[in-house]
User: What shape does this take?
Amino acid sequence: MQDLNELKEVISQIKEEITGGIGSLENSKAVYEFKKNFLDSKNGKISALMKEMRNIPNEQKANFGKGVNELKAWAAEKFDEIDAALKAKEATARYEKEKIDVTMPAVKTKKGNLHPVTQIRNELIDIFASMGFDVFEGSEIETDYYNFTALNTPADHPARDMQDTFYLSPEFLLRTQTSAGQIHVMEAKKPPIKILSPGKVFRSDDDATHSPMFTQMEGLVVDKGITLCDLQGMLNTLVQKIFGADTTTRFRPSYFPFTEPSVEVDVSCFECKGKGCRLCKGTGWIEVLGAGVVNRKVLANCDINPDEYSGFAFGIGIERLAMLKYGINNIKMLYESDLRVLEQINDN
Ligand code: PHE
Assistant: This one.
């Protein structure tokens, strides 16, 4: 290069090159690369211009340097501008991409819950524990004596036919009722007694409302001066907690060898409030449990003096309560572990 005129030409060429190239740059990395062609201290076109200084006549050197410096400043500004614009564009694009919609419904997580039979069992235990009952869990294999004989049901007693029994041997059987627990408790402990005995029981019985294995909850209270009225008071509290505050009970005479008198307990229909509906078969009442005043013979079998003490006992079928409470019409639904059924049954 020889003089200022030549420089002017080169400057306008470079400016054109820069303005022409800048438009097609897409990101700040491309800006950086493009910029190197002009401003890199070793290979940049603008930086190279300074080296031409020595060929320029002395009196033009000052203007030449000024011209190159102005070009440098101009180019730097152009690159900064485009770099800032592209960075802003990149940031906006990233914000758009990473935008979170806080109004979007959250992903639902499924929560497991206890089996309906376990829920009712726990609910019953809670209700009775608040009335001072202890829990006694007997064993599922019993002797004939505890399951029947001590409960005033000797071998030839017709009441044995009420419960079709799975015998394991002439002496051992699968308990047909949690009542067997009454004898164990009364043998081990003298009155006052207040126990609940939940557990599985077994009977050779199988249809829509019966299963060979089901769950019962036995209650037993023995003390001085216990009567059927105490039983009714307690059962009213029970059904009100389970079926609602406006339910009540009624007793109908029945027969169990180990209670005298014996009763079937009905709860007023919580569905139709006693008017009569499909659930209560038009009667306004639903049978929920068997109960009675502990037979004197049973107390005597356990060395408790029936002249001094009296008591009441009741036995509740837990599946039956679960079916009534959750509107299930086939007991098998409680054992099939079908999630479509179980997911609909959750009090918690
Ligand atoms: N054990 C009786 C049954 O299984 C129920 C019951 C228990 C009745 C306690 C009276 C007293 O049918």
